[in-house]
From TrEMBL:
Superkingdom of the organism of origin: Bacteria
Alphabetized Gene3D superfamilies for the sequence: FAD/NAD(P)-binding domain (3.50.50.60)
MF terms (GO), sorted A to Z: flavin adenine dinucleotide binding; monooxygenase activity
InterPro entries: Auxin_biosynth/cation_transpt, CHP04046_FMN-dependent, FAD/NAD-bd_sf
Keyword Oxidoreductase among UniProt keywords: yes
PANTHER family: FLAVIN-BINDING MONOOXYGENASE-LIKE PROTEIN (AFU_ORTHOLOGUE AFUA_4G09220), FLAVIN-CONTAINING MONOOXYGENASE
Pfam families the UniProt entry points to: Pyr_redox_3 (PF13738)
Protein name according to UniProt: Putative flavoprotein involved in K+ transport
Length: 418
C-alpha cells in the first residue's frame, strides 16, 4: 500500500497565485503544502526575456498585505525587480513549499477528498487548489514542421535577447503583448524584423494626462465581474490589448514601426520549404486594433466630460501608415529571413488531473474558482472573477475568496466527524 502524507489542503503551483492562497491558509491555521514543479516564481524568474517589464503600473501589484512599496508607483518594474518583489512577499511568512516536485496525478479518494501523486512523494488531502496558470505548452502550429530546417524556429518562452537569433531577418509571428514587445526589442537593436500581424487589440498608454489603466481603474472597469460582463465568452477568449512598460511605458502603433522599416504581413496561414503564406487580413487587423485604441480613448473622454474633470486635450488619432497591398506569400530565402519567432501563446496541460472538473473542450468549469466537485479549486486564471484575476491586481481578492470557501468546508468537515 502506497504511503501517503495527509494535508488538509494541497496547492499545485508555486507562483504568486499559489503563494497568495498559502498566505491566507497560514493565517487560518490550516495545514497545507505547495507542490511546485520548478522553483517558486519560476515563470517570472526564468521564462522571461532580458528586457521584460510589467505592462501594468507598479501600483497594481497588490499581493496579500504586501502592496508595491517602491518609489515609482506609476512606473513598470523590470524582470529582476519583479522577482525581488515576489521573493520579499514570500519572506513575510513561511510558505510550506516543496520545490522541484512535479505532480503526476490527482484522483478522487474513496470516502471524500483527493489523492495526489508527485515526483517527491504522495499525499492524501481534503481539498486541492490548482494554481498552475495557463502557460504549460507553447503553441506552434502543425505546418511549422513544413518549413525548411535551415530556418531557425524559436518560441517566445525561449527568447532572451536579439543576439540569440541568427544573423539575418526574423519573422515574429503574433501581435499579442509578447509578440509586439519582442518585435520592438529586436528592432531597437537594429535587427531586420518582419511581423505577422494577428487580430490582437491595442490600447493607449498615456492619455489626457494619465495612464489609460489609471482612468479605467477609476471608472470601475477592472471591478466588473465576469457574471456582469455583457459578453463573457468574448472577454475570456480575447487577447490582451498590447502596449508596453518599457522605458517608462509607451503605446505601440505598428504603423509607426512600418514607417521605421519593419515589414508587416497578415496572419500566417501556412509554410512550405522556404515560403510562408499569409491571410490577406493585414489592413483589417490594423484597423481593428486602432478601433479598440480609439474606443478606449472615447470611453475616457466620455468619463472626463461626465464628471467635468480638468484634463489636457489630446490631438485626434491619425493613421501613420497604410499597406499598399496585401502580401500573401514571401520566400524567406529571398527576403533574408533566417529565423521565425513564435509568439502566439500557450495552452494549459491538465492531463494529470483525473477529476471531473472540465467541460467537453477540456476547460476547467468553476464559479469564482470553486468547482462542483467539493473541495476542488482553480486560481490564477484570466477572468476567474474580474479582469484582474490572474494578475497582480486581483490575486489578493481571489485568494481571500477561495480560502474563505476552503476554511468553511474544513469547518463543515470537522462538524461532520464530531
Amino acid at each position: 500500500m502506497t504511503h501517503r502524507e495527509h494535508k488538509s489542503v494541497v496547492i499545485v503551483g508555486g507562483g504568486q497565485a499559489g503563494l497568495s492562497v498559502s498566505y491566507y491558509l497560514s493565517r487560518e491555521g490550516l495545514d497545507h503544502v505547495i507542490l511546485e514543479r520548478h522553483q517558486k516564481f519560476h515563470s517570472w524568474r526564468v521564462n522571461r526575456w532580458d528586457t521584460f517589464c510589467l505592462v501594468t503600473p507598479n501600483w497594481q501589484c497588490r499581493l496579500p498585505d504586501f502592496p508595491y512599496q517602491g518609489t515609482d508607483p506609476e512606473g513598470f518594474m523590470v524582470k529582476d525587480e519583479i522577482t525581488d518583489y515576489l521573493d520579499a512577499f514570500a519572506e513575510t511568512f513561511n510558505p510550506p513549499i516543496v520545490e522541484n516536485c512535479e505532480v503526476t496525478k490527482i484522483t478522487k479518494r474513496a470516502g471524500g477528498g483527493y489523492l495526489v501523486d508527485s515526483s517527491q512523494g504522495n499525499y492524501s488531502t481534503d481539498q486541492v487548489v490548482i494554481a498552475t496558470g495557463g502557460y504549460d505548452n507553447p503553441i506552434v502550429p502543425p505546418y511549422a514542421k513544413n518549413l525548411d530546417p535551415s530556418i531557425v524556429q524559436m518560441h517566445s518562452v525561449d527568447y532572451r535577447r536579439p543576439e540569440q537569433m541568427p544573423e539575418g531577418g526574423t519573422l515574429v509571428v503574433g501581435t499579442g503583448q509578447s509578440g509586439v514587445q519582442l518585435m520592438e526589442d529586436m528592432h531597437l537593436k537594429g535587427r531586420n524584423v518582419h511581423l505577422a500581424v494577428g487580430p490582437a487589440p491595442r490600447s493607449p498608454r498615456m492619455y489626457r494626462g494619465r495612464d489609460a489603466t489609471d482612468w479605467l481603474y477609476e471608472m470601475g472597469h477592472y471591478h466588473m465581474t465576469i457574471d456582469k460582463h455583457p459578453n463573457p465568452e468574448h472577454a475570456v477568449s480575447k487577447t490582451n490589448h498590447y502596449m508596453t512598460g518599457r522605458d517608462g511605458g509607451h503605446e505601440i502603433d505598428l504603423r509607426k514601426f512600418a514607417n521605421e522599416g519593419v515589414s508587416l504581413y497578415g496572419s500566417v496561414s501556412g509554410m512550405e520549404g522556404t515560403k510562408v503564406q499569409f491571410l490577406p487580413d493585414l489592413e483589417t487587423n490594423l484597423d481593428d486594433a486602432d478601433d479598440s485604441y480609439v474606443g478606449i480613448r472615447k470611453v475616457i473622454d466620455d468619463y472626463i466630460a461626465k464628471h467635468n474633470i480638468d484634463a489636457p486635450i489630446e490631438p485626434a488619432f491619425e493613421k501613420l501608415w497604410q499597406p499598399e497591398q496585401e502580401i500573401t506569400e514571401i520566400d524567406c530565402e529571398k527576403e533574408g529571413i533566417t529565423s521565425i519567432l513564435w509568439a502566439i501563446g500557450f495552452r494549459p496541460n491538465y492531463g494529470w488531473i483525473e477529476v471531473d472538473v472540465f467541460d467537453d473542450l477540456g476547460r476547467p468549469v468553476y464559479q469564482r474558482g470553486v468547482c462542483k466537485e467539493e473541495g476542488f479549486y482553480f486560481i490564477g486564471l484570466g477572468w476567474l472573477n474580474t479582469w484582474g484575476s490572474g494578475r497582480f491586481l486581483g490575486i489578493d481578492e481571489d485568494s481571500r475568496y477561495l480560502v474563505d470557501a476552503i476554511a468553511n468546508k474544513a469547518k463543515a468537515n470537522l462538524r461532520a466527524v464530531s
